[in-house]
Design brief:
Elements: H1 2-20, E1 37-50, E2 57-59, E3 66-71, H2 72-75, E4 84-88, E5 90-92, E6 95-102, E7 107-113, E8 116-121, E9 127-132, E10 135-142, E11 147-149, E12 153-155, E13 159-165, E14 168-170
Parallel strand pairs: 1-11, 1-12
Antiparallel strand pairs: 1-2, 1-6, 3-4, 3-7, 5-6, 7-10, 8-9, 9-13, 13-14
Amino acid sequence: MKKHLFFLFAATAVACNVLFTSCDEDPASELSIENLKTATIEGTYLVVTDFTKDTTTLKTPSNIVVTAEIPYSELSPEATATGVYSVTGTYSNGKYSVTVPTSVKGSNVTVKLSQINGSVKKVDSTTVNVIWADETIDAGKLYPDQKITLDNKIITSGYTEVKTAGSEYVK
């Protein structure tokens, strides 16, 4: 019986030690943005897919990932962490939107649009598979409650012809 009480007492002491021991604060912990106001960036992103016609044929790319990046130092002057805060936006029917945290003094924001896989009908009527590279757009300095619309991004060139291997694009 004494053995059981000893083990019970020892287990209780270990549990209390674990519960009541504090951990040192991580000086490089992630920046808290809960109390920051936000700004919204909107824009249009389309590609030209048919160069055989007199009129431009624009296509809405699918599966675009829109992200915005803000340096930690732009969100808080006390930020000790280096790097950027990244947030994902939405993309639908050629339009994108992303809401970002901003500081009272303003925050510089960069918008990134992911690469696009697709096909292009060339002037000689041949169709080729292509990859359009990632796009990076400097949205400038944004302030709380600001809403901006960036210039339309219509990609007419800058693609790389590729071969397909199954469902994968290969350069």
